[in-house]
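[agent] plan:
  1. take the single chain provided in the ticket
  2. run structure prediction with default settings
  3. attach structure tokens to the ticket
  4. add a short note for the reviewer (M.T.)
[agent] executing step 1
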Amino acid sequence: MRTDACDNPTTPGSSPRSCEGAAAMLGFGKRQTEHPRIAQIRQLFLFATLRPRELRVVDGLLHERRYLKDEIVFDEREEGQALYVVLSGRVLICRQGDPVAGRIAEIPPGSLFGELALLDGAPRTAQARAAEDCQLAALSRSDFNGLVDTHGAIASKIALQLARDLGKKLVSKLVANDARPL
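[agent] step 2 finished; step 3 output follows
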């Protein structure tokens, strides 16, 4: 049976410190540090049911890009290609070319938009533009479809969360419409 210097503290040249160093060099006992983006996407409803390993798979599919203030993310009637996570800054959703009077919503950091693009390539119903300098992470429909093929359980969890959220939004819209006077 083989013993290493770290196994026998009486071995010359071995010490707890040198053994800890060897373990650290090999990565044992070392806690993996989480990518800051994973901490952000973990907070989103869409990814709330994913385990850490599953979050790392999704994180590997995200593509980051910086946008300058007033830069267009996508135009109204453009084919939906991806959903976007706002990592920093804010994004304005508005009618095409009318950011003031056509304002629909403002998307803050830690939120997402354009999620219907995961389901179909239907035309966008509004324009998205950077309300200020911002950083976005995109998950493309083609990457999501690839996830369905390679990691079906992860894709199913995301699709179920998407369905739940869309259902809540639909019910909320129906209730709001019923509350209006005729």
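[agent] step 4 note for reviewer: The radius of gyration is 23 Å.
[agent] ticket updated
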